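[User]
Um, tokens okay?
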Amino acid sequence: MSLATKAMRTEVNHQKTDFEPNISTSSPGKPFVWTTFTGLLRVVLLLIVLLSYQSSFAEARFPKPEFESGHVPPETQTVAPRAAKWEYVDVAVLFVLLCVMSWFVLGKRSRKGIVWTAVASVLYFGVYRLGCVCSVGSIQNISMSLSQADYIIPLSVIAFFVLPLLFTLFFGRTFCAGVCFMGAIQELVHIKTVKLPLWLTKPLSFLPYIYLGLAVLLAATGADFIICRYDPFIGFFRMSADFGMVIFGVIIVVLSMFIGRPYCRFLCPYGVLLGWMSTLSFRHTTISPSSCVQCKLCEDSCPVNAIAKPLPVKTEKPNQGRRRLIFMLLLLPVLVISAAWLGRSISGTLSGIHPTVSLAQEIKWENDQGRKTNSEESQAFHSSGIPAEQLFQDAGEIQRQFRLGSSLTGAFLGLVLALALLKTAVLKKQKNYEPDKANCVSCGRCYRYCPVGKANSVSL
């Protein structure tokens, strides 16, 4: 972390300029399920052992200070950090809820069990833990730890990032079913499904990829943790959000009453990773416990449009599909390169989010205008004694990081768009109604609509 960043860590509120620092200065059965659960249990136990080692090492390296002068520290006005043992409890609760939810989804096919597990998740991770620690926000911690050597990520955060992905790889998106308290809130308030048209759903489903790219870029450069900053639900639990975020949260909750999981489908960046893992999952929930009779009763039951209909292969001219596929393959590198160029072109604007770059713009403006802005950040910088050249050098280095990161983010988004178009050129025959493994959140609402499974399923 640069000297300027350490001196001024708060956000800069000042008159914006177009200044850019000079960069030249810097069929699976129960045995399989049981074996998988025991394997995941070993992973959790290993994480707990590592957490214990990390805690004991930290205590030995940094012993508690002794105050012998009679000084009485003032009472803190912030929430004290949780003891290490409570981090183990958080990880253990996450693991247990994942196991229980996977059992209700795949083993019992119980909608009622899914709902009550979702309630338990909201009560613990939302009401009691106030929305922290969170698997969705852990993306930022992982990104920062991979890009900044001086950032030490807690192993509990790693566990919250990895465990849902592991369970999704084996059992589908059972984490999304209700273990994630944000998804659970949207699931519990949903009362009537209003289907969105396909022309609107398709563009909106691209937003989580943009959100993921921006979140990784800003966290990796140390600019901001936007997932936490714009979390629509934490403000309800902590009673500390500003008015704008309260309105945003209320809008998401109201939309969730009629539109299936709007945050999960059109914003959640962690859902992108879970969708990838679910596509490769060894097991996944099914609409029917046995063969599909194609009664079409489940067609309108899914609030997130994750039921794929039977799709016969269309008859077309022999070379028509081949020409479409070749065109899409040729278009792929064009989209990736173009998106990378576009990302690089807006890197200057994005870098202004970083406090150091923003402060450098303010100081440069003061030097050019010959007068001071008298902002708190400017006053703190001038009182620190740090040369302006050092600030500009640090800002230039950060802008170089943004140019590279923005180019990679743009290339990633271009690749996602190209693959989505390429998918439309590949015709896949499907005989029955099946869940879309990438988008299905394993909510179990379709269980009660299937006449084949009514006798064995437990519905709510």
Remarks:
- The first strand starts at residue 307 and ends at 308.
- Residues 316-425 form one domain.
- Residues 289 and 453 are 6 Å apart (CA to CA).
- Residues 388-425 form the longest helix (38 residues).
